[in-house]
Protein 1
Amino acid sequence: MLNKEGHVPLYIQLKDLIQEKIESGVYAEGTAIPSERELCNMYEVSRITVRQAIERAVSEGLLVRRPGKGTYVSARKIHQPLERITSFGTTMTGQGLLAKTSVLEAQNAYAPAKVYDILQVSKNTPLVKLVLLGTANSQPLAIYTSYFRPDIGEQMADYALEWAAQGRAFSSFDLYEGMSHELRPVVARQTFEAGLASSMVARHLRLGNPAVVFVVESVAESKTGVPVEYKIAYYRADRYRFSIARKIGT
Amino acid sequence: MLNKEGHVPLYIQLKDLIQEKIESGVYAEGTAIPSERELCNMYEVSRITVRQAIERAVSEGLLVRRPGKGTYVSARKIHQPLERITSFGTTMTGQGLLAKTSVLEAQNAYAPAKVYDILQVSKNTPLVKLVLLGTANSQPLAIYTSYFRPDIGEQMADYALEWAAQGRAFSSFDLYEGMSHELRPVVARQTFEAGLASSMVARHLRLGNPAVVFVVESVAESKTGVPVEYKIAYYRADRYRFSIARKIGT
């Protein structure tokens, strides 16, 4: 219960209580929490206190408001450690999610100029373009567009179509698994940005407007430093959390 | 010029051209690019082609639309490698920006419950709360709220006020510099999330609505594993880009 004589503001105490109920599973992921009026009665606090507590919990990402419907417990975020890239399927299974990958596109296409520069391939050469959609529990979570070096592109597209037909969950990096090849990548140089989803990305990820996405660009390099793949990925920001331990200082 | 007989769609060619002009500085950061009509005339292409090219450049973050005003070249993003945390001042100076830190709050305060758990301090103890605002070229870029272990909090607040009075640019981690102390942190465990800015954060960062921010939580630990500081930071997503080289596979 709330301590009305304590030092901690009531709305913070109420937010902490709601958070504890979410973390202990009393309020389950994706379900509605009690209405403002119910919370007022349950905790004998004012409507203003309840609103401030909910506002705080929404800004911390614990709750989401669905206009005209109520306030719901956010879906838990998928946690990706940044130290190393692990397989898409393993990551999802590790978090209790049923994952699947679909191939939206696998064809020859012209890429933006910078992709040719990055892959060190002459412009006006078509490249193999592969667009994958990653879903978990039937919800689309991320869309990935890759361009490959010409010498591996067709092989990669074939693997993708084969794996998707088998119902597997994979990212483009997982596809190199079968390849006993000097071009198999060992490192991905990535940049992480965030922004509003474009209408195309929002449509594929079934997001409303405005929706926030992580934009992750990757260049995968073989152990001899050859860039073999350029990839741009859009992840639902409400479903992903990245973590890292960083050393402080020089 | 555009190649109307080429394989590459005209709008992609035009987008690439605009990008080259931005990268070479012909279109300078923060200035308006020519109007749609001017671009149609300059490149002898249809209005639809120009719109598609601009749409693409906006979705890639190269341009921003200011309703009723025109289309502008985005400010270059600040690049932060994730391998290691370097000083705020050095990072900004390295990118040619004039940085400054202001202290918005330095006082005793009660923290959310999870902060006490993280810092392993009993609840109902006030902690030193330090809120810093980082600016570059007079634009606010990030707001940081830190809570410290009780034994170092006052010292940290004193340093912050002193450094700010000297006009220095710093983050809370830089403040440990002077401290020859076993509690000096050597690692920060961080999570990166992204979302829409709350109205409070938007006000401090002078952002319109909707605005996207990175939300970075850090726990700084001493070399003996003692958690000395909890920090939550909000970074303007339109001004920050994080990078990392990740190993692929297990």
Note: Chain A touches chain B through 59 residues (CB under 8 Å).
Protein 2
Amino acid sequence: MKLYSYFRSSAAYRVRIALNLKGIEYETIPVHLTKDGGQQRSEAYRAVNPAGLVPALVDGDVAIGQSLAILEYLEETHPEPPLLPADPAGRARVRSIALAIACDLHPLNNLRVLQHLKHGLGLDEAAKDAWYRHWINVGLGAVEAMLAGHPQTGRYCHGDQVTLADVLLVPQVYNARRYNCDISAMPTVTRIAQACEQLDAFVRAEPARQPDAEN
Amino acid sequence: MKLYSYFRSSAAYRVRIALNLKGIEYETIPVHLTKDGGQQRSEAYRAVNPAGLVPALVDGDVAIGQSLAILEYLEETHPEPPLLPADPAGRARVRSIALAIACDLHPLNNLRVLQHLKHGLGLDEAAKDAWYRHWINVGLGAVEAMLAGHPQTGRYCHGDQVTLADVLLVPQVYNARRYNCDISAMPTVTRIAQACEQLDAFVRAEPARQPDAEN
């Protein structure tokens, strides 16, 4: 498989974790999000992913350009080890946590939105950073509320096996730290992210360890 | 089943369409997003959905508070008629279109973000409307690029059977029209939405036909 990736993209980071967890070998094809006016906007890349967003996974003649669609595809085509529980209620809980990050939090803070706040609305750095931290607080706060004290929360988000919820959580916590957000009010989120970060599949997916990593 | 819903919430609208398509009877429990400072923020509602967002579906002792997690749950527990194709590549394409709306477009324009633009950033109505139209253009433009000329696009987003992609598309087109966005540059999106809007399951899910509808 080929993964079109940018080392700092948290959506790409999710997919790298899942590929590692499932033991799938892949080739990284770097797509630089700020060089050349954004390589993801190039005609060549849009032929792979018409939406012009990173990541995209190519598996033979199948090209998928949405990280959660990629994760579900990997789950269906490479079911072991499973990243969703077997019961529909458990699957719904795991997907709800994953989507609370993928839909309700991450899209508000991704690069193109930050660029629009700056260039479209004329916000300065301080106002942009305040926006970022606001949605981290709201979004990770919601995830904390879903996890804290819930009987199915275990070592990881759902019991003691890694699931898609954890795969989404770790890159989001990485983003929060990168922007110096205070997440001390989210002890369950912090504890689970730290537990995941001890696992080799998560370590190898870290932005700093990617072939296109920069300082 | 019980659906905690707000007539104008496009995430609730998605779930209503899917429940209708699958012929599942449900009770609507209205949650007013602007009355009482937002009923979705109440302690009573947060006991159902800790994230404090609409919709939530309650099926016996299972409560799910993310629209896409609800749709996948309904697909797993009520597989007929299927809203995902049988093949992993087709499922990935349908999910990619659905997620292009659920992740890349809708979260940027939902009520709490518009409220934050106004009260947090002090944007006036014109600037708020420009934000809305910007992301409609970017987001539905990406969906148009995924659909137009693709060999698997048919009467609906994926062939001639309704899928989750259509379930997501129609409420988003409703939103675009409500904010007077010009989507004439998206003929495939427009054509497919119009085809869906002829189906009874979509008609009955329309905001204006809900028990909590207002002018």
Note: The mean pLDDT of chain B is 96.
